[in-house]
Amino acid sequence: MTAPTSSTAPASSAPFDPLADPPSIEGVPLTSYRLPDWFLWAALGAAFVVVGGIGLLADWSIAATLVATAAAWLVGATAWSWIKEGERWGRNTLMTVSVYLAFAVVMVPLVSLVWMVLVGGSARFGTEFLLTNMRGADESNGGFYHGIVGTLQITGIASAISIPLGIFTAIFLVEYNGGWVARAVTFLVDVMTGIPSIVAGLFAYSVFLAVAGPRYQAGIIGAVALSVLMTPVVIRGVEEMLKLVPKDLREASYALGVPKWLTIVKVVLRTAVAGITTSVMIAVARVIGETAPLLITVGLTIRTNTNPVEGSMATLPVLVYDQYSRGEADTMERAWAGALTLIILVMLLNLAARLISMHFSPKGKR
């Protein structure tokens, strides 16, 4: 008996050729030709070389060369993908390159701002600048230590007021279904979010004016003004984070007999702690650089004041504004150094918040 013969041809041992036409049956392709993963970056390099060469010959500016390169990358990569891969993948290449270009456009002002502050602030920034105040300062010395102390104290008091109030209000809106009260609170929070900072400063100053009398300036007034601006941001951010917690987690906790308050503390807040931390830091960044309300409520001084309930206090935003408005070379250097200090301070606060979030977030594989 002879073995049956196979009607199919043996598989070819020839190496794969990416430029060859895909296999087909009677002219119908079985697979779609795909360009390699490095195609987009090769197209970007080719566009940069071609447009850059033309720009050098035509004496274009750097901005014009970059814009022309981006346009050539978008058109060239899309056209080549459309021809080689078909309409569907050509549209995909168009959207992919558009997203990359949008990201680059967004990064331009951010990188420019950071670079400008680094260049302008590095001339005066240092240990002496961070550890001395403006008392007895001349063109060669004088630092913002008193501004750093005032900013940390006022922002800390404002955070101590706003963070608990904002979190508890968000819990009420999401977890307790307050009916018309919740709708009214939501409407007021939306209105408060758009209040100009100068209005918050005037409100806080008027409240303390009625209690403590005229010409009273102190750090606590500035903290109250900043808390008016900070609280609605915390409420809205935390509210959205709590809404993202699945209801199944709450129901599972209730099924085990856990009371509502403990479910909120141990399940809901622990699950949303990363988003809550981000919301709080956004609110802190919103108020830490405010100048207008602090000019009214806190004032400006050249000495270090560590008492937030008595006397004027210096803050970094007000010091930067005061030094920059003078327009002299040494004051401009102090202003840029103060702006750099403020950016570093916000960065350190964000880093500390991330570490706290990592510590309290639920552990385990996702």
TrEMBL record:
One of its GO terms (biological process) is phosphate ion transmembrane transport. Residues 1-15 have a biased composition (Low complexity). Signal peptide: none annotated. GO terms for cellular component: plasma membrane. The chain crosses the membrane at residues 38-56, 62-83, 95-123, 143-173, 185-210, 216-235, 267-288, 335-356. PANTHER family: PHOSPHATE TRANSPORT SYSTEM PERMEASE PROTEIN PSTA. Belongs to the binding-protein-dependent transport system permease family. CysTW subfamily. Part of the binding-protein-dependent transport system for phosphate; probably responsible for the translocation of the substrate across the membrane. This is Phosphate transport system permease protein PstA. It comes from Actinomyces slackii.
